[in-house]
Amino acid sequence: MLWYIRHLDKYEPEPWTHIAAAFVAGVLVTVPVYAVEVLLDQVVSFSGFMETVYVSFIVAAVTEETGKGIAAWAASWRRPEFNEVMDGIVYFGVTHMGFAVAENLVYVFLGGDIYTGILTALVRTTTAVPMHVIVGMIMGYHMGVVRFATTRREKVLHILEGWVLPVLLHGFYNLGSLNQDMALETLTDLIRYGFGTALLYAAVVALWMTLLPRVRRAQQASPFRPIAAYPLVAAEMPCPGCGAVYPQGARYCPNCGVRLGRGGAPAPR
């Protein structure tokens, strides 16, 4: 999966050493994140469905996405190699992957018996780990736009979207996964578990579909994209976001990544 994330940055891939540093940052941040989650779990006491919502969105989603975002920022923001929007997708996605792998190992080894541990490993490796990576890449896209945005409004909007959207996606995923915490004692329990697992896989596919348009935008906006991929005639009007010149027919500014409408006009938001 690390190779695939780096492969998406097809015009100027990031150095493997920087990718390794981002991964390690994600692993290390699991310690303070876990401490905060334990504290939040003890401070407020709910029951029933409200407890599930509180744990899904506040204890898990808010804490983990905030912690992973800070770790990714610390590992990548000052690097001169972070020189396009796509790099945000790579660095933040890798950091989230490091967190997911560490968390997965904790769940597996604390699962109790061998059967439970193996089942947990199979399900989480193909659902929870991709979920963390995908929401991290979504966050990274918006943080990449923030890095190269020229207006305060654009920076604020993408900071909010880059944090709120991953929190919501992570929280709703947790709502489904927490309902999987059941004893498999009867055939009915097994059927319920299988149905719930199928929903988790469907959620991962939906997350991936949310990510793909952002990856395409970042790739199209890359300043390292070969010039042969663009028409050679410059547009009549400069980019409304940063003032840079861009080719006719471009959908996104190759300098700042802002979406362009027909004729170079800013696209409606």
Mean pLDDT across all amino acids? 85
Care to count the β-strands? Answer: 0
* Beta-strand content: under 5%
What is the succession of H and E elements?
HHHHHHHHH
Shape from CA axes?
Answer: elongated
Provide the helix percentage.
55-70%
- Largest sheet report: none
Number of helices: 9
Distance between the termini: 33 Å
* Overall radius of gyration: 20 Å
List low-confidence stretches. Answer: none
Structural class: mainly alpha
Structure description:
The longest helix is centred in the C-terminal third of the chain and has 34 residues, at 187-220. The chain is an all-alpha fold and 269 residues long. The two termini are 33 Å apart. The protein has helices spanning 2-8, 16-28, 30-43, 48-76, 85-109, 114-126, 128-148, 152-178, 187-220. The protein is built from nine helices and no strands. Helices cover 68% and strands 0% of the residues.
Features:
269 residues, 68% helix, elongated, single chain, mainly alpha, 9 helices
Overview in brief:
This protein has helices at residues 2-8, 16-28, 30-43, 48-76, 85-109, 114-126, 128-148, 152-178, 187-220.
